[in-house]
Amino acid sequence: MSERSEVFDVLVVGAGVVGTAIGRELAHRDLRVGLVDAAEDVGTGTSKANTAILHTGFDATPGTLEARLVARGHDLLGGYAAAAGIAVERTGALLVAWDDEQLAVLPTLQAKAERNGYRATRLVGVGELYEREPHLGPGACGALEVPGESIVDPWSPPIAFATEAVAGGVELLLGTRVTGVRVGPPHRLVTTRGELAARHVVNVAGLFSDVLDRWFRRDGFTVTPRRGELLVYDKLARPLVRHVLLPVPTKLGKGVLVAPTVFGNVLLGPTAEDVVDRTDTGSTAAGLAFLRDRGARILPELLDEEVTNVYAGLRAATEHGDYQLRGYPEQGYVCVGGIRSTGLTASMAIAEHVVRLLAEGGLRTPPRAGAVTPSMPPLGEEQRRPFQRADLVAADPAYGQVVCHCERVTLGEIRDAQQGPLAAGDLDGLRRRTRALNGRCQGFYCGAAVTSLLGANHG
């Protein structure tokens, strides 16, 4: 791609869950929009490595933009997931106190939730707590119940948003790293594939959002990558936990939790360690030992189960306690920085807010009819998977031919994931679209077959 003569109305830099949500929202307007990312797929950064929780926002800092957008986003994403077939399970959460000091904090957290507009929390005594979570470690003193907290498939939302955006005319420019900016108007983004011109730019660059912000002559925040390591336990561990088990939060974050996943596993994590390298997603012996120590207290029997995977994600932490979401109308520039672990939940609400900021900058956004919510493949354990549907198998036997037996992924699903405007281009993309290779054997048995199928369809 060389320098392009046409000028985009809006260029969105960053195709994570928030960037794709913005692209989707802009696709509903009669605009020329580009969605740019350095990666070869959407949702490959922070978006793919989180705790997969649809938050109510009960524990957000009252009065912050984050609190408002998480609460709004909870409703928006919940509705969108239902329409698109994205897996969500309303397990509820229990915020567990492990000593008298933490127990005394629970009423304060309940009052905080009420200030955030969430009034469904309830204090739970120690007897009821152990009735509801019989495998909980000894020594818990009580809990705060948050019934609205849910677990969600975290991989499908950015794919669904981007699919809808592309169908609405958004140009998806993957493998395109922004290396500089010539501030306009129009703005010219220097990229690894030539220059791109735009009247308005939305910075959703995640871990590099502060770098792009400075290229636009702003200096409002600095990103300090915060690494969160997590352990994924085998499906045999799933009966050990019924709710999301949350700790009493600290200033570093929500702390170490134990949570079921919609895929049938159990998560333990994350850690919270500030690092220098913005690409350092490696796991550490110290981090995993820390998690096992915490897990031994929360759910001791969990440590007897097999670990099927270990991963780490980097959150775009800043020196501020709130989202760094700012519009500069005189410049035609919007910065979406400091979006941390709540970004998945807030994504659609952030998109709404960004469109309002763009309008303040003079962008006319007439609505365009015809947007259709895509139908996403059912990846959740509580959903009917293709191999379970006799009608699908009868119509196409490929849906009855299991390739990945740990995750029960069929030939038909692998084929489907490699078709369409957002086809899987590599094994990681295929994992996020089908669950293939994510099971107990981690591809030991099916890896060669899956790789061969990927190569055959891209050959």
What's the structural blueprint in terms of helices and strands?
Layout: E1 7-13, H1 17-27, E2 33-36, E3 53-54, H2 65-84, E4 88-89, E5 93-97, H3 100-115, E6 122-124, H4 126-132, E7 142-146, E8 150-152, H5 156-167, E9 171-173, E10 178-182, E11 187-191, E12 194-203, H6 209-215, E13 224-233, E14 244-246, E15 257-260, E16 266-269, E17 273-274, H7 285-298, E18 307-317, E19 324-328, E20 333-337, H8 343-360, H9 390-395, E21 402-404, E22 409-410, H10 411-417, H11 427-434, H12 447-458
Parallel strand pairs: 1-2, 1-12, 2-9, 5-14, 12-20
Antiparallel strand pairs: 3-8, 4-8, 5-7, 6-7, 10-11, 11-12, 13-16, 13-17, 13-18, 15-16, 19-20, 21-22
Describe this structure in words.
The protein has helices spanning 17-27, 65-84, 100-115, 126-132, 156-167, 209-215, 285-298, 343-360, 390-395, 411-417, 427-434, 447-458; strands spanning 7-13, 33-36, 53-54, 88-89, 93-97, 122-124, 142-146, 150-152, 171-173, 178-182, 187-191, 194-203, 224-233, 244-246, 257-260, 266-269, 273-274, 307-317, 324-328, 333-337, 402-404, 409-410. The chain is α+β, with helices and mostly antiparallel strands. The strands form five sheets. Strands 1, 2, 9, 10, 11, 12, 19 and 20 form an eight-stranded mixed beta sheet that branches. Strands 13, 15, 16, 17 and 18 form a five-stranded antiparallel beta sheet that branches. Strand 10 (178-182) and strand 11 form a beta hairpin. Helix 1 (17-27) packs parallel to helix 5 (156-167) and helix 2 crosses helix 8. The longest helix is centred in the N-terminal third of the chain and has 20 residues, at 65-84. The radius of gyration is 22 Å and the shape is globular. The model has no long low-confidence stretch (mean pLDDT 95).
